[in-house]
Amino acid sequence: MDSRLRLRIIVAGSIGNLLEWYDFAIYGYFAAQIGRAFFPQADAVAQILSAFGIFAVGYVVRPLGGVLVGHIGDRYGRQRALIFSITAMAAPTLLVGVLPGYHTLGEAAPVLLTLLRMIQGLSVGGEWTTSFTYLVEHAPPGRRGLFSAIACCGGTLGVLAGSATGAILAVLLSPEALESWGWRLPFLFGFLVAIAGFLLRRKSVGVADIAGMSAGLPLVETLHHHFWLVVRLAGVTVFLAVGFYLVFLYLVSWLQGVDGVDPARALTINTASMAAMIPILLAAGWMSDRIGGRLPLMLAAMAAAIVSAVPLFLLMHQNATLPIAAGQVALVILVGSVSALTPAFMVEATPPSVRCTAIALGYNIPNGLLGGMTPLAATWLVERTDVDLSPAFMMIAAATISFATLWTFRRSLAQGSP
User: Model pTM greater than 0.90?
Assistant: First the structure.
């Protein structure tokens, strides 16, 4: 495979993932404004809870989207699945940006917002797992870890773009303008990216795709022959399902509500942390190809998260930029190392004929049940228990589950079977 073809595969596989995470990131960052636009009669905490509740609904349907897009990927090829998923994202992204609020539509406004988030959730459920499967499968020999990290960079760039967009708007617009209409602009920008991604993937048709697709129903074959493999993949994913959304979505709201950090500074710190994640991802992927493979590095990062979550949240629990940034970067190193290696690990642990479906189930079920609920649960716990470090204990519990599950893969992967 020449370098131009390889670059085309990387860009085609990553651009949809960038869009998906950009869109979900800006929803998380502007949860307060969205809550006030669609739930104006509730108090401030209830507004955020309502906005994060609709955010969570989009994640609950992710497993269904994973099954749908995974079926297309296993039966008809990865590229067709990726074209379908980005198409399913474009229209809802535009409509969220122009949907009138509660004062115009009344009770219909939050209902319509929920439906749009569900459609986007279906798309995300298949986009991410299919795109990283596509990229890792096309990695050159001895470069699966690096291509795994590159796949994650697409999502990281999406979250980074969402964070940067929020920070720029918070600086350029007055609080009143941001409240009334400024929060809608990032969704309109996202629609333009969706159109570009669709055209790019259409032009990429013809790039070599994996052969030997499933001849039957991938879902039936997966559940009949690989049920416990899916359960174990889900267990490994728990840490990312909780840790990622705590660090890159909820933490912005936590800093504002617990420490009194102003929105512009919280978003700026988050943007800098996301920028730091890109070299962390690439370094972790490169290291896994050179020394020891995926398992040792993933186990080490999860163990470190169990030990250091509370001290790092304590470090951030003050209204000072340097400690907050240091604590968040440390969390980025832990979460980013696992995130970088999970795609390659899952591809290597699953059979090719049902790979898209098995990975979609194993990855999306914990994300649907836990990932989308994480900001909601963290907000509720801090409010009801009055324990500001509740998010740290959530991260410890998730890391413990994933560490124990990942440990069970040691022999099977060493012997070359899932």
Answer: no
